[in-house]
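Session log. Operator J.P. requested a structure for one protein chain; no other inputs attached. Running the standard single-chain path with token output.
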Amino acid sequence: MGSFGQRLSSDQPGHESPPVDREPEHQGLYDPRFEHEACGVGFLADIKGRRSHAIIADGLTMLENMSHRGARGADPNTGDGAGILIQIPHNLFSQLTQQLNIHLPPPGAYGVGMVFLPREAARRAECEATLAAIVAAEGQTLLGWRDVPTSNADLGATAVRSEPVMRQVFIGRGQGLSDDPLAFERKLFVIRRLAEKQIGRDASEGDAAFYIASLSSRTIVYKGMLLAEQLRGYFPDLSHPLIDSAIALVHSRFSTNTFPAWKRAHPSRFLAHNGEINTIKGNVNAMRARQALFRSDLFGDDLPKILPIIDEDGTDSAMFDNALEFLSLAGRSLPHAVMMMIPEPWEKNPEMSAGKRDFYAYHSALMEPWDGPASIVFSDGVVVGAVLDRNGLRPSRYYVTADDRVIMASEVGVLDVPPELIRYKGRLQPGRMLLVDTSEESIVDDDELKQRVAAEHPYGEWLARHMSTLEELPEGGRERAPGHDTIVLRQHAFGYTFEDLRMILAPMARDGVEPLASMGDDTPIAALSRRPQLLYHYFRQLFAQVTNPPIDAIREELVTSSAMLLGSEGDLVNPRPEDCRRIRLQSPVLTNAELARLRGIGGHKPYRAGFSAVTLPMLFPSGSGGTGLAAALDKLFATADRGLAGGANLIILSDRGISRDEAAIPALLVVAGLHHHLIRRGTRTRVSLLVESGEPREVHHFACLVGYGADAVNPYLAFETIRDLIEHRLLTGIDYDTAAGKYLKATTKGVVKVISKMGISTVQSYHGAQIFEALGLGRSVIDRYFTSTPTRIEGADMNVLADEAQQRHDAAFPERPANGHTLEAGGRYQYREGGEFHLFNPSTIHRLQHAVRSGDYEAYKLYAAEIHDRETHLATLRSLLELSTDCAPIPLDEVEPVEAIMTRFKTGAMSYGSISQEAHETLAIAMNRVGGKSNTGEGGEDSERYASDPDGRFNRNSAIKQVASGRFGVTIEYLNQAREIQIKMAQGAKPGEGGQLPGHKVYPWIARTRHSTPGVGLISPPPHHDIYSIEDLAQLIYDLKNANPQARINVKLVSEVGVGTVAAGVAKGHADVILISGHDGGTGASPASSIKHAGLPWELGLAETHQTLVLNNLRGRVRLETDGQLKTGRDVVIAAMLGAEEFGFATGPLVAMGCIMMRVCHLDTCPVGIATQNPELRERFDGRPEHVENFMRFVAQDVREYMAALGVRSMDELVGRVDLLSVRGAPRDMKAGLLDLSALLHRPETGPDVDRRCTTAQDHGLAAGFDRTVLLDLVAPALERGEPVAATLPIRNVHRTAGTMLSSAVVRRYGAGGLPEGTVHLTFQGSAGQSFGAFLAPGLIFTLEGDANDYVGKGLCGGIIAIKPPDGSTFMPEENVIIGNVAFYGATAGAAYIHGAAGERFAVRNSGATIVVESIGDHGCEYMTGGRVAVLGATGRNFAAGMSGGIAYVFDPDGTFNRRCNPEMVDLLPLDEVDARELADMVWKHAIHTGSTTAWHMIGRWGEMWPRFVKVLPKDYGRVMRALAEATAQGLTGDEAIMAAFEANRRDLARLGGN
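Structure written below.
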């Protein structure tokens, strides 16, 4: 049995091919660690465990029918990955291996490895020999090797260049293994881990291709860097008649990068994953720290061989698979392990059984959740199942058939199943599991499965015996309040300013919410500021965009948790009752009294068994500099080690002991450094770190501390300051206890909001997850104290950190006594004389306004010179860049004209609602005149503006129509008035957050544009509810391109580390333009911490995106745009050199129109009539289009002058020309001198065929779309002549966005009113693809006999949709899922009737449609602002969260609906007779359109039925409706009545909640 044996017929490349291409290494700003992925996923299983070839063949068909969920890069025939996991096909292998003289034992007595090997023969032989030696050393028998036949004829060049040799290794079960069925699986696991570590360690440069895709006696994985439709043909094995399985698990990958990576395809060994693990860094750190405690009887002496458990070179999915594999092989059942890693949201679910709650509570003491949006399918070869994340953020649908098969996938319709064979149609619900056990020949129900697992141990008893709450601990003694002088001294020592007191602490203590700010951030980043900065300010919060959604922590609070556990973790492998001996905190923020309780837990006689506390000082000798600071930290870490050795498991890190001789070490430096020190020593899970510090006071500080390892934080000085403010009457009308409670609430909710921006639900998961980028910290600091945190421009070292701490300390302890009662003004949020520097200050504002109003270009040049005065202040990264002086200049008249340059200019997305009508229209008129583009923002646009004046001088139509999460006013007419449609994924000033327009700002004219009610507040949710992943964004791009084929589709992202890889995915999703927004852009209102601490300068994000797209060879198909405090021509030129082709301005045009940067936009008190709807304030507006025109012309002329000096004739020549930039030297004694911007100027090495700017248009696939190939011709008589059309036609899941291009054609021909109702009636039969009937126009009726996927009726605009089961169906429609998630999102008009159940988030943001459905999932009618919804059956949890308008009628026969409704914003009322008549009409039409038996039954007993409905009425909406009725009763009509009702209501204090 030679290592090769006999070769089978194969089209595999010859073994002497050139070496494998490698993935690009970290270079410039590109970092492969930030790759993201999403996908189509599914499984097919025979419940009875009957093997067949059909299971595999149908599994491949499922995969092929989800090909649109995968992706391809610059090479159209190279996919991101596809694969299938099946049971070992013994019949096939026993026949094929006989030809190779390999004699296989019975099934289960041998294992098969699917191995990817290097193509170079010598290296491959080394790998095989090493693996053989490992097999022998582990006492197993290597039976032989088999070449896997492959055919790469259809693969793209990129895939072929990196294609490995694929071989299967057969390993016989050796003697000496126990009878445990999993003993051999564990031994194969050990062999694989040893091979991965040893061959990986010994590999030479080209050996990256060695990879074991699977090694098991139960399952095998066939996968590769393939398109879904290539998998079947690439592996002839999969079509062999002898291959069989009872299970097939499939996956099609959509990666945000396209680099060769065969091993990154799914499935992994146990699972395939559609989603993201947002907490992966913290999970991996925790697993690494836990390993020191692992003991396993099952693995025995083999345990050290498999460590570390996690392969940190893998994707988040692969690392999750590593952990799941280990937990299941170490003794837990596969479902048990999955429940531990992805727990349901158990803490706030009163309907959950006590047994399940106890299971989750106990296991929370062993492991934090692996948190993030996920649909995971898993199998060990015996059971196969699927689980959905706790918030239901991935589509997962399934059929159970009469022939005992389960078909589960990201979509329905992936297999054609006759209606009469479908026994049940279901969906995975949030946090729920679907399991098929082929050994038991059954589907195990979620409740039954989890109750069975939860009953394995008496978890409730264990918890009652060992788990404590903080309140159960004795009090720690009375708190002694320090005197005013002591407080002020501490405030100086910890860098407090008067602004902190006035704008941060006082509002939090008074209102219980994080304070708002506005107009962005034009101060220097911490690394450039000349004022001493707190260490927190060097860290930027990361946030979710595109690849996973942020969470609405306010409206969807039921999935969040702020709880933390203190004490020692137990052994994850061998849990014991006492392993839940922990103290449970409801918040990571502690009051002084609560910390006193914990401090008292220690001592020589601890009064709480299992706990001991020790306090360590966070101090260093004053004046000792960076060396002394580092030495003090080393001493502290050593002291902590001794404390652990002495039994302490609560370490309190305190800076209370500051004195003239000892200064405070930055608390974040201590926490992060000690956290990583303990991880490296393997002791982190034995101790909790509590911080007692005077530093933290705002939300970002707490988020940093928790994110870097603090288990709890006591901001003692913040509490002392609040008491002092009250005593000195700077905070009035509130007592200290109430104020402290509100501050605690504000900080806790603020932290939860920060974690929710990253799509994380629990603080326990966020703890230690390090979801930050360092901006301006040196690698020496990061590697030692903040290990693995990205830092890309170097910066401050320990000397700088010590110096800044020293400056604060010296302010508290000056050499000579000074006025100790005066804090510095601050000026970080609002300009203050002598405070922090602002680019827009009274001088620069005056200069710009004078220039644009006088039309004086020379005055503009003075303004630009002051902006770029780099000798006085370095305010931006670009201020450290120099333009080349080595170029031969050219005459100015050879440079392209101002008019050509201005076509690249845009104004920012400022909504009609955030700014006044006058300001909004002024921007549109100006930009249309200069040939640029203005942006509607997310508030829609009045259709009266679409009609231009005769000479075109006053064209008020904004060229860019924005589509944001609120979908305000997004109709098919609105979209067809656009030259460009922008999808707002995030906003620079508040990425990962939504927004809110309070009711007193929703004037009648704003309400009309937004399709809402005057006086009723409006919420923009943090996520787009139709974008939970990269493939969802691709779908929305496709929807919008169908809605307006002539418009470019622009996707707005915000600069953060990894944005380049996200942008690569967006380019592959067919965006035409990608906007990279800087962190510093303006906003009408945002939490202060977001303005200051989320997002990055655009220079970093833009350069990273350009570099990554060039590396991916995607740059040529997409245009790049940037914005964020662009103020001058120099800014534009540098942006172009870093990769931008288009440029956005917002604050500059506002200043040109008259803004004086008072930064009170959120208060509706704008003194110049811009950021207000108040008619009195609007009268003060004196801006004119000419002012904005002058600003744009001046900037363009400025650009031309720079181009002439650089010898560049056109903007196209300038794009990506980093060779014309250099880094300006800064004095080494300044912080800025430590920065290294060379990564910004990196120029990837590529071939001449790789574009560095946009040269080609995206192919959106419209020509092959369903509407263009079928519907437009079919409906031509109606489009051309208005004649009625009726037809019946088939539809499949690959037919996406059916009816949208047709609706566009209707509106372009007939206007917003469309066709007369019923002109076109099309009946579809089958399973419709995503976005069926999206933006359906008036006059169109779509009836679907079958079922549909997600986003049915998205943006419904007046058409009618009816969906019902096909004839011959045997299931009960009202109990079966017939449409997917997020149906009728943003609907504005029309009607829909659904004879069956819908998924999660039904009718989100409905603002005008009338919809009837028979049951729905969680979060129904969320954010709804208008229209009517009737639910004739059950609803899920959290109904009506954020609902501010419209009415819902819910059938509630057993009176339990109130438990599932979110009561914050709605009242539940009985119906009156008017309501009953309205509801009867809806139910009657539902019966007519769908034939619903449920509806006919209700109609037949209407008098008995209608009183059993509940009317869900939003409180604000009801109040406005009553005010309107009173105005009407007084004789007012029309707009007068509406305005009177608005004025009567607007001052009502019972406004929408928000924070």
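Operator note: The CA atoms of residues 1169 and 1177 lie 5 Å apart.
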